[in-house]
């Protein structure tokens, strides 16, 4: 089952259903992401912003509000099938992240969230993305790190959860789908790409079973479990605990790193 990293997580999914999933995911991460970008990228009206891997376009709508009619917002993705209605000044480009930039040196901010960890060559993608930036422009990447997910709740349920998570993560590594510890490597990758004035922020939280987020996470894990050939009974055990009120676990982290193009 090697080679899963070569294709999109939800290839073959119904486009309308995948749009709903992407909108929900964007909604869960929106408050943290918007606060992070406001602080680290100094967003203001008139700026030019590129989002790579724009998904449903949820963040593009926010960028349009921030930069206003004098700004420029470009959404880049390998498929535009999941995009909803988008306001001016948003425009779209269907392209591969590894292609040379069509508008080199144009953007004040280039941003991607939960994208690089799914690519077969994230370092090459970082270099490509930095080429879209003006000199002094900001590259802002947010990536997952779920290597430390574990139960807070004790007893047999906690042991079962931790063993199940270890099983799922081993299957993820074996298939090459994603590196569970990718997020913590992101800052070093920025340095290797020649970016300067680096910052790093981490979304780090404890989640409770049965919350909207935990049920969303369980649904994703069921899909991933089937993709990677994990034991269905083990996956179901983990997901059931994620859906159980009162069960607490250390959640996956998001590492947000920014750097400036020299």
Describe this structure in words.
The chain has seven helices and ten strands. With 262 residues, the chain is an alpha/beta fold. It has a domain of 181 residues: Rossmann fold, CATH 3.40.50.150. The chain has a seven-stranded mixed beta sheet with strand order 3-2-1-4-5-10-7, with helices on both faces. The chain has a three-stranded antiparallel beta sheet with strand order 6-9-8. Helix 3 links the parallel strand 4 and strand 5. Helix 6 runs antiparallel to helix 7. The chain is globular and about 55 Å long.
Keywords:
single chain; 7 helices; Rossmann fold; alpha/beta; 262 residues; 7-stranded mixed beta sheet; globular; 3-stranded antiparallel beta sheet
